[in-house]
Each structure stands twice: as C-alpha cells, then as structure tokens.
C-alpha cells in the first residue's frame, strides 16, 4: 500500500496542534518542577552564606582573643602567595594577580581596612572568573583567601582600628 506524499503531509499537519499542546504541557510541568528546585537551591545558598559569615566572626573572635597569632597569619599568607592560581583574562587579570601578591606580602600589623576591602574585591573577582571559566581551583583558592580576610579583620579590630563609617564588616 503506497501512501501519497500529500496525504502523509496532511496527516502530520493535522496532528501538529496535538503535538504542540503535549510539548507545551511538558514544558510547563518541567518549569514548575525546576522552580521548586531553584527555590530550594536558593535556600541552600543562603544557608551556606550564613555559615561562612558565622565562621568569619568566630575566626575574628579567635584572633581578638589571641588564639590566632601573627605567625599563623603570615604562614597562611605565604601559602596563598606561593599557591596563587595562574591569572586568566576576564576578571582575574594579571593586574589583579600582582595586586594580590602585594597584599599577601603585607605584615598583619601594616594592614588597613582598604587592604581588606581590596582582598574582598579580589575574592569576588576570583569567584566570577571561576564561574565563567569553570575553574574549580579558583573556588578552592578563594575559600582559603576568605579565611585570610577574616583573620585580617580580626587583627585590625585587635589593634583597635574600626572600619570606616558606613562600611559593613
């Protein structure tokens, strides 16, 4: 039995609205499912942010109490300096790489709030670069840099140097 091409095309066109409705229903169903997952993922990200903030405060308190010394700061800074990831081109540029090296060579007693804010900016740039490049080494390095930033804040507060007005620490 031979089916005429015109008959076949007309049968397919007749089924097109049904196929479109099925595809639309599937898309809407999947969108609803993914919105729940997206909402829950947002909750997880917020919880992780709270944990990071808590750890930073706890580390700052340890510095203020003298449980973390200048030696530990210098050791971590030396480790971070020697392990600096190779710079990329979009966010984590050669200039950022070199500025990070300068900041890591600073003595904890010479740090300023501007240095801390610059380290935080570099931290954000590392994460942006990791997001666009897919480099997980940048994320791991940024986590260690975040610990150093918390220690630096603690040393500044220990010296009695308060952050500038209007800046949240």
Strand content: under 5%
> How far apart are the termini?
80 Å
Q: How many runs of DSSP E, i.e. beta strands?
A: 0
Please tell me how large the radius of gyration is: 27 Å
Q: Order of helices and strands, N to C?
A: HHHHH
Share of helix, binned: over 70%
Keywords:
169 residues; mainly alpha; 76% helix; elongated
Protein model, in words:
The chain has helices at residues 5-65, 70-82, 94-104, 113-133, 136-158. The protein contains five helices and no strands. It is mostly helical. The longest helix has 61 residues, at 5-65.
Brief summary:
Helix content is 76%, strand content 0%. With 169 residues, it is an all-alpha fold.
How is this fold's topology laid out?
Layout: H1 5-65, H2 70-82, H3 94-104, H4 113-133, H5 136-158
């Amino acid at each position: 039995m031979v089916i005429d091409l015109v008959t076949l095309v007309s049968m397919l066109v007749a089924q097109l609205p049904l196929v479109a409705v099925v595809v639309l229903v599937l898309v809407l169903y999947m969108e609803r499912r993914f919105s729940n997952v997206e909402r829950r993922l947002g909750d997880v990200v917020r919880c992780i942010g709270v944990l990071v903030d808590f750890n930073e405060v706890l580390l700052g308190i340890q510095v203020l109490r003298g449980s973390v010394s200048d030696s530990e700061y210098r050791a971590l800074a030396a480790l971070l300096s020697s392990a600096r990831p190779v710079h990329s081109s979009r966010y984590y540029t050669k200039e950022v790489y070199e500025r990070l090296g300068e900041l890591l060579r600073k003595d904890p007693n010479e740090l300023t709030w501007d240095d801390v804010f610059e380290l935080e900016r570099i931290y954000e740039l590392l994460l942006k670069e990791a997001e666009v490049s897919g480099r997980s080494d940048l994320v791991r390095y940024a986590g260690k840099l975040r610990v150093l930033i918390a220690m630096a804040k603690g040393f500044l507060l220990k010296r009695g140097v308060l952050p500038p007005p209007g800046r949240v620490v």
